[in-house]
Design a protein that fits this description.
single chain, 0% strand, mainly alpha
Length: 79
Amino acid sequence: MADLGHDIYMPSNRGNPDSLGHTSLNYESDLEYWDYTLTELGNDIVDFAQSMFSSAETGKGYLFAYSEGAGQALVALAL
């Protein structure tokens, strides 16, 4: 799709190697780092989509999700 000129955005879930740089919590020593709910993950999708729409300025996009990401998407749609 990128070769066809489409913008590609790939969010990273909390707790993967790309998201371990929290501004105040350490993922190895602070239990609060891991204290989040599926609702908060859904909020992450909403925030990501708002950022994507602002950047792309098209007002539309597609979300492809699998497993936990699909659960997040369903929660985001319900918010």
